[in-house]
Amino acid sequence: MEPCRREEKQATIDNLPLGLDMKEVPANGYLVENLWNHPNQLSEEMVCCMRDIFLFLADPSKTSSEHIASPCSPQGHLSYSSLTSFLDSPALTSLGRSPSLETDHDSEIIIRDTLSDPYKVPGKLEWTKSIGPYSAAVEVAWFSVGKKELEYAAIALKRFRMLVEQLASVNPSCMSCNEKLAFWINLYNALIMHGYLAYGVPKSDMKLFSLMQKAAYTIGGQSLSAAYIEYIILKMKPPAHRPQIAVILALQKFKISEEQKQYSIDHPEPLLSFALSCGMHSSPAVRIFRPENVSDLLKSSLQDYVQASVGISDKGKLLVPKLLYCFAKGVVDESMVPAWISQYLSPEQAAIVRTCSAAHKWKLLGARSFSVLPFDTRFRFLFLREGKSPSSPA
Prior knowledge:
Elements lengths: L38 H18 L33 H8 L12 E3 L25 E5 L4 H19 L11 H23 L5 H10 L1 E4 L2 E4 H8 L9 H9 L6 H6 L30 H16 L1 E2 L5 E4 H8 L7 H6 L4 H14 L9 E4 L7 E3 L11
Parallel strand pairs: 6-7
Antiparallel strand pairs: 1-2, 2-8, 3-4, 5-6
């Protein structure tokens, strides 16, 4: 296994775009080409950069998110051993030739700010005034890329390209447990967002898994896909709330080298279910994870998701999203699910749940006091507001 590298190393890409200033200094004050030696800050910058690309492409004047438009999905590999960046990918080329760009209605990303109910479902009552941090989330609910958006992407992704290229010089085996955990969470979310831009919005679970296998970065000389990061590096179990992907994983065999074993976290972390976003309506929000707060933020991610995603139906039943239900079943008996959920609710929310449960006497009727909502696979990213920019490396 290669020893930990701490000396400075000049990174190169053969087809680096002309006119790119390698000494570009971002707003937070440190040089982007040195971040390979600070992998956590590198991963934080990648999430911020990809988030900013999505948000910059948004047209706030548009409000409809009923339809989802997908960019053309190219064949190929997002690994920087083959596709050096989205800037050079077939996705960019094919979008430039798309007939849809000749219409009067250019495509754009749609965002909505200050969501009162980001997981709104039919039959759910407006049951509280506050749902926690998700009420201030920004939603990207639909996207395609038009001519002017391509012009912006070509510039913005130069910076992102510099960040991704540095991953080849990172050695995750040198990181502490918390450093690994924060690094891989951020990297996974950035890679999924990058994959959506390059390959388009998948129309099914099978196509999503295909995207997760194609979308890959070269990290420390190892080409690692989003699927590999999620299920091998982060040791996630097959998702019970996504049965089709669970079946695919049962038939999938990942080859694991000794070096890649050193990249993995030491123990499975169940709360990752509320930190990793696959870009779908029922997914948790994207946020920045740092080594110094990763454990606390994972706990907060569960609580924030609970407060934002559960609700009360017009018949007085607790509405529980399938992602949360499957997680809760691994912790408590099914009959205790409402009580377990209530501990993560705000006092106002918990009081309403208790009142509805007492009023309807579900147990006496032989029916459970909650309903499970199906996992909603419509495209959507939620971004939680950050209190500060990524920390500068020492």
